[in-house]
Amino acid sequence: xxxxxxFSIAAALVAGTAQAQELxxxxxxxxxxxxxxxxxxxxxxxxxxxxxRIQMQNYHGATLGExxxxxxxxxxxxxxxxxxxxxxxxxxxxELGVTSLPYVFKDPEHQYRVLEGPIGEDIAAAMGEANMxxxxxxxxxxxxxxxxxxxxxxxxxxxxxxxxQNSDINVxxxxxxxxxxxxxxxxxxxxxxxxxxxxxxxxxxxxxESTGHFEVAPYYIIDNHTIVPEGIIFAKTTWxxxxxxxxxxxxxxxxxxxxxxxxxxxxxxxxxxEIVEAAGVTIVEGIDTTTFAxxxxxxxxxxASDPVVADLLKRIQATE
Length: 320
Fold this sequence. Notes:
Blueprint: H1 3-20, E1 23-26, H2 34-49, E2 56-59, H3 67-76, E3 81-85, H4 108-115, H5 118-128, E4 132-138, E5 143-147, H6 154-157, E6 161-164, H7 168-176, E7 180-183, H8 189-195, E8 200-203, H9 205-210, H10 213-216, E9 219-226, E10 230-235, H11 236-239, H12 244-278, E11 282-284, H13 290-293, H14 297-303, H15 307-318
Parallel strand pairs: 1-2, 1-3, 6-7, 9-11
Antiparallel strand pairs: 3-10, 4-10, 5-8, 5-9
């Protein structure tokens, strides 16, 4: 799709949003997913606390388009808000690249401390230049590999075809492990594994379970290679229309929704793992991820050589 056509679609969607006088929110997950439940809570809080001045409608299950397309629409202002992964934004906002680097975060709590502190403020400023305003960060889980054949070590990753999000960093990470990276929309992963287009993918427990991917890729190796940020993000063109008072209300609601989502997420992770274990999935854990991390040199060299990104990386590594 060329840029002119994309812009035309975006303009049409913007016009439709204005006529409806209702903000449209995107989300890729099914309605009963922790992200979706928390996003619904967010909308309820905002509408109640603004006495209905701000009306919003969530569209779950990627009904407004798959991730990459939806991210572009947010940047155009054709979508008003939603819960977005930052992975597809890396190619537009270079500062976000550091958050998708393999093994950059020690654990989810470390990620929150980074994103909710001075480093996060600098990243948010860079996102603003691309018409995006992050308000809060959700739990997104640690991502690991799964496939239709046994995965016991880094050697088993090599040679296989893995679906990745459409991010240059993710492609480079998989290729550094000796595998073939295939960017695909999230909604196409199940049939792509089933038909042999790819051998597997990489994701967290709830995504692996809720999509049924474990049915076609029953081998899961816990390497926790990335903890990719995901959160409530507004189009800046929409955000700037709010009064300062309403901005404060919306931001506070987004942060409360994030705390709620993290609680739901912890419970869902446990439940999802129990479901796939009961289904007979082979889970390999306790591996030495050093063998994985040692292969990431080319990835860091390629994506952390920019002075701005390199500085952010040093600051993240220095954050306790």
